[in-house]
TrEMBL record:
Keyword Oxidoreductase: yes
Keywords in alphabetical order: Oxidoreductase
Protein origin, superkingdom: Bacteria
Entry protein name: Acyl-CoA dehydrogenase
Entries under InterPro entries matching the protein: Acyl-CoA_DH_C, Acyl-CoA_Oxase/DH_mid-dom_sf, AcylCo_DH-like_C, AcylCoA_DH/ox_N_sf, AcylCoA_DH/oxidase_NM_dom_sf
One protein family per Pfam: Acyl-CoA_dh_2
Entry keyword annotation includes Oxidoreductase: yes
Organism: Streptomyces spectabilis
Length: 392
C-alpha cells in the first residue's frame, strides 16, 4: 500500500525546469498556430512530455519522479510562463494521469503504466466534478454520461471521469480507453483555445471495477505521501502554478512594452502613475506567490509526518488558490490598462490576457469556494468538513 512514510522530494526538478525553458522559444513561435488548431501540435505536445512534466506527478514506485507539491507548482508555473495554454494542457494531463496511477489497484495500474521511465504509459484527460451514471453489473459497471472541459484530450489515450453508482450514490472515478467515448469537439472560446477542452459523452459502456476508485480517497495504492492530498487538493496544485506563471509573464511583457515606448512623445509609461501601478501589481503577485509557498510548505510538513491535512489546511489550499487567481486577474487588468495597443493586437499580451480571462472561470476559483472558505475560517461552520469543493 502506498502513501506511508515521508514526503518524497525529487532531485529531478532542476532538469525538468531546464528542459521546459529550452522549449520557450518554440512555444512562443507556435502559439498562434496552436490557437488556430485548437490544440497543441503533436510535436509540441511530445516535446513537452519529453521534459518529464507528466512523469513529475507519477508515483516513484511506478518509475515516476513523484514531485512534492511545491515542486509541482513550480513546474506548472514554468510551463505556463512560456505558454498559458500549453501549461494548462500539461498540468491537466499531469494531474489526471498521476492520480490515476496512484489510486488504481495493482493490475490496472500495471496495464496502464507498464514502463514509465521509457515513456510507455497512458495519458488521461477528462472531467471529475459532474458525475455520470454507473449501473453495477458483474465485474464492473455500465457507464453513461456527458462530461465537460476535458483539457488536453487531443493528447490523451484514456478518459478520467467521475461516476455515481446507482443504488448507493457512491462517487467513483474511472479510467477507460478514449475510443469508448464520443468527443463533441465544441471548444470555441476566446481564451485557452489551444487546450482542446472539449466535452464528451458515452452510453452504456462497460468499465471493469478495477479500473475505478473511490473519488474521495486519500489512500494511494501506488506512490507516497503526496497522494494523501486527494483529487481536489492535487488539482489545486496545478491551478495555483498556472496562475503564478501567467501573472509573471504578463508583468514581464508589460515591462518590455514600457521599455519600447519610454521617451516617446506623450508616453503613458513615463508617468508616475504607471510606475506606481506597476509596483503595486508586482507587490501583489510576489505576495501571492509567497503566501502560496507558505501554505504549501506547511502542508508538506504535515504530509512528511505521515498525517493528513487538517480542515484548516484544506481550507487554506482552496483559499490560496482563489486568492492567487483573483490577484493575477487584477494584475491582468493593470497590464491591459497600460499596454495600450499591445493588449488588443495579436501577440503575447493579447493571448495571455485572453487565456487568463478564461482560466479564472474555473470552478476551483469560484465565488462559492471563497464563501465556503469564509464560513469555516470565521467560525460559522466549525464542525464542517470539505467534500470536494463543498463544505458539508
Amino acid at each position: 500500500m502506498g502513501g506511508t512514510g515521508r514526503l518524497h522530494v525529487s532531485a529531478e526538478l532542476a532538469g525538468v525546469l531546464e528542459r521546459i525553458d529550452a522549449l520557450g522559444g518554440m512555444l512562443d513561435e507556435r502559439a498562434d498556430a496552436a490557437e488556430a488548431l485548437g490544440r497543441l501540435p503533436e510535436d509540441t505536445a511530445r516535446a513537452l512530455l519529453d521534459t518529464g512534466i507528466v512523469r513529475a506527478e507519477l508515483p516513484l514506485s511506478l518509475g515516476g519522479y513523484e514531485f512534492a507539491p511545491r515542486q509541482l507548482i513550480e513546474t506548472a508555473e514554468r510551463a505556463s510562463y512560456h505558454d498559458a495554454s500549453a501549461g494548462w494542457t500539461m498540468f491537466a494531463l499531469q494531474m489526471m494521469t498521476g492520480t490515476t496511477a496512484a489510486y488504481l489497484a495493482g493490475d490496472a495500474a500495471a496495464a496502464l503504466f507498464p514502463d514509465v521511465p521509457n515513456g510507455k504509459y497512458a495519458l488521461l484527460s477528462g472531467h471529475g466534478t459532474r458525475p455520470g451514471r454507473a449501473v453495477p453489473v458483474e465485474g464492473g459497471y455500465r457507464v453513461s454520461g456527458q462530461w465537460q472541459f476535458a483539457s488536453g484530450m487531443a493528447h490523451a489515450t484514456h478518459i478520467h471521469s467521475a461516476i455515481q453508482v446507482e443504488g448507493t450514490d457512491e462517487l467513483r472515478v474511472l479510467a477507460m480507453p478514449k475510443s469508448q467515448v464520443t468527443l463533441d469537439g465544441n471548444w470555441d472560446v476566446l481564451g485557452l483555445r489551444a487546450t482542446h477542452s472539449i466535452d464528451y459523452h458515452c452510453a452504456d459502456v462497460y468499465v471493469p471495477h478495477e479500473y475505478t476508485y473511490v473519488a474521495t480517497t486519500d489512500t494511494p495504492v501506488n506512490g507516497g505521501a503526496v497522494y494523501r492530498l486527494g483529487l481536489v487538493n492535487m488539482s489545486a496544485i496545478g491551478h495555483t502554478g498556472w496562475a503564478l506563471g501567467v501573472g509573471r509573464r504578463l508583468l514581464d511583457e508589460l515591462r518590455r512594452v514600457a521599455a519600447a515606448r519610454t521617451g516617446s512623445r506623450g508616453a503613458a509609461v513615463d508617468t508616475s502613475q504607471f510606475h506606481a501601478e506597476y509596483a503595486t501589481a508586482e507587490a501583489r503577485l510576489r505576495a501571492a506567490r509567497a503566501w502560496a509557498n507558505d501554505v504549501w510548505q506547511d502542508v508538506e510538513q504535515t504530509l512528511d509526518q505521515g498525517e493528513l491535512p487538517s480542515t484548516e489546511q484544506d481550507t487554506l489550499i482552496r483559499l490560496v488558490l482563489n486568492h492567487t487567481t483573483s490577484t493575477v486577474s487584477e494584475v491582468g487588468r493593470t497590464v491591459h490598462r497600460w499596454a495600450g495597443s499591445a493588449a488588443i493586437r495579436r501577440g503575447p499580451v493579447d493571448r495571455f490576457l485572453r487565456d487568463l480571462g478564461t482560466g479564472t472561470q474555473h470552478i476551483t476559483s469560484s465565488p462559492v469556494v471563497l464563501q465556503n472558505c469564509g464560513k469555516w475560517l470565521s467560525g460559522a461552520r466549525p464542525e464542517a468538513r470539505w467534500s470536494f469543493l463543498d463544505l458539508t
